[in-house]
Q: What sequence folds into this?
């Protein structure tokens, strides 16, 4: 490197004033048909990227990102599932030897050893051989790890009924309604319906009553005869109260439609 | 004109070496799919970077609408998904990109592993790469909570319970992540948002810079 006397700089900076051609070094370590990265190779990479992007966008358009119901911490029936690339860990913890009393093994020791070994692979596999067949232990362990991850992932979702799951967790925007708890209708509701449909009609054992599309007559019929999973004879009271109840539910829904 | 501007800046800043280092190198034959089709395995790293760029861009646009608050998080995602023009596409890109980046990262790791490319002198780059993998998994875990729907909420609850089993530091880790010893709630959401949007991307950028500087310094590993 050129040093000391005779060097000229731009102003008082450390940038040299005498321009030198910046010619890249030869890539002669691996003889063969090398190619300039810029622009030749980058152009090809660009094309690969473009094809990849088109495929990716087609996938994105074909399947919108899923969104379930707004989180409800009181929902005790929900079976949690992590994102797919954590499923193998999730499944591993279900086994007797890795969960329950031995959760430390399943949650910390085993993954810690596996990922620690991955991190330190260059120091565990120090031989100079690079071909997979020339280092059978390393290759074998990795193949075993991949197989078990794939198998655990499969096991974790083999039983999952995706369609019911999606159906039960459809996103619904709960309309905001003010419920007049002083009204006669609410008093009737409070007597017969509140235990299943919740004190704000938000649902519980039974579904929410906000956003249902029934007429007064239909609601009266359902209250007495039941529908779907709802048994008959839930309503107890006079015909007048039944009318008040149905009108109350319809009025809440009219409010929700606005 | 452009040349003059360039020369003017270059005289003062000496920018030529900066881009020359990136642009001017030969690509060896054995990694070039134009010469050997099987060399497509060398694309996985670049594609991982490409998807990461997609994630950064789509994520930046998502934060224009997203509200990290338990009352409004889900509603803002629902609004984005159903009302905003192209909102569904941008969220779709971020959602599916999160999966594709893991797939690409996995394939890239396997390529390097089975080719023994992590061996001397590239041990340090392998370690940085595995750390990048961990950061990416962390981004996946924290991002999963943000839509604040049922699957997000309950998966995070399980994840935090697992974190809690760590000996000695488990409780502290859980409180650090969720803001409370028992509740997964408002604090958890803001913390996960901060980790997802600020802390982990910062780590990601730093590690990626180191990863790329190392590969330029050492060059691609030779053919098997």
A:
């Amino acid at each position: 490197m050129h040093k000391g006397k005779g060097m000229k700089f731009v102003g008082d900076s450390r940038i040299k004033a005498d321009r030198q051609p910046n010619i890249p070094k030869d890539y002669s370590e691996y003889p063969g048909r090398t190619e300039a990265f810029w622009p030749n190779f980058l152009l090809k990479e660009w094309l690969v990227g473009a094809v990849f992007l088109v495929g990716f966008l087609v996938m994105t358009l074909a399947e919108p990102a899923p969104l379930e119901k707004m989180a409800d911490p009181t929902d005790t029936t929900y079976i949690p599932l992590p994102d797919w690339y954590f499923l193998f860990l999730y499944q591993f913890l279900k086994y007797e030897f890795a969960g329950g009393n031995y959760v430390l093994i399943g949650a910390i020791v085993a993954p810690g050893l596996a990922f620690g070994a991955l991190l330190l692979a260059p120091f565990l596999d120090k031989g100079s051989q690079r071909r997979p067949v020339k280092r059978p232990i390393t290759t074998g362990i990795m193949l075993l790890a991949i197989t078990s991850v794939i198998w655990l992932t499969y096991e974790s979702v083999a039983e999952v009924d995706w369609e019911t799951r999606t159906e039960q967790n459809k996103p619904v925007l709960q309309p905001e309604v003010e419920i007049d708890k002083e009204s006669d209708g609410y008093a009737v509701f409070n007597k017969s319906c509140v235990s299943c449909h919740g004190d704000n009609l938000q649902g519980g054992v039974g579904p929410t009553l906000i956003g249902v599309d029934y007429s007064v007559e239909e609601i009266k019929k359902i209250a007495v005869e039941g529908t779907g999973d709802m048994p008959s004879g839930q309503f107890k009271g006079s015909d007048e109260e039944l009318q008040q109840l149905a009108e109350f539910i319809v009025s809440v829904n009219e409010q929700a439609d606005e | 004109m452009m040349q003059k501007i360039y020369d003017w800046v270059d005289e003062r800043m000496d920018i030529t070496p900066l881009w020359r280092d990136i642009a001017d190198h030969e690509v060896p034959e054995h990694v070039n799919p134009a010469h050997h089709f099987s060399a497509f395995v060398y694309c996985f790293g670049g594609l991982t970077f490409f998807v990461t760029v997609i994630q950064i861009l789509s994520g930046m646009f998502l934060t224009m609408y997203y509200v990290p608050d338990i009352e409004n998080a889900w509603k803002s995602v629902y609004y984005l998904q159903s009302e905003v023009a192209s909102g569904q596409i941008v969220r779709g890109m971020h959602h599916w990109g999160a999966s594709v980046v893991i797939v690409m990262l996995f394939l890239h790791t396997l390529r390097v592993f089975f080719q023994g490319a992590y061996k001397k002198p590239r041990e340090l780059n392998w370690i940085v790469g595995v750390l990048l993998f961990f950061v990416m998994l962390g981004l996946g875990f924290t991002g999963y909570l943000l839509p604040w729907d049922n699957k997000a909420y309950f998966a995070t609850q399980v994840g935090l319970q697992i974190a809690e089993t760590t000996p000695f530091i488990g409780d502290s880790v859980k409180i650090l992540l969720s803001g409370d010893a028992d509740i997964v709630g408002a604090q958890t959401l803001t913390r996960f948002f901060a980790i997802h949007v600020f802390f982990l991307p910062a780590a990601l950028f730093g590690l990626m810079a180191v990863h790329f500087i190392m590969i330029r310094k050492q060059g691609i590993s030779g053919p098997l």
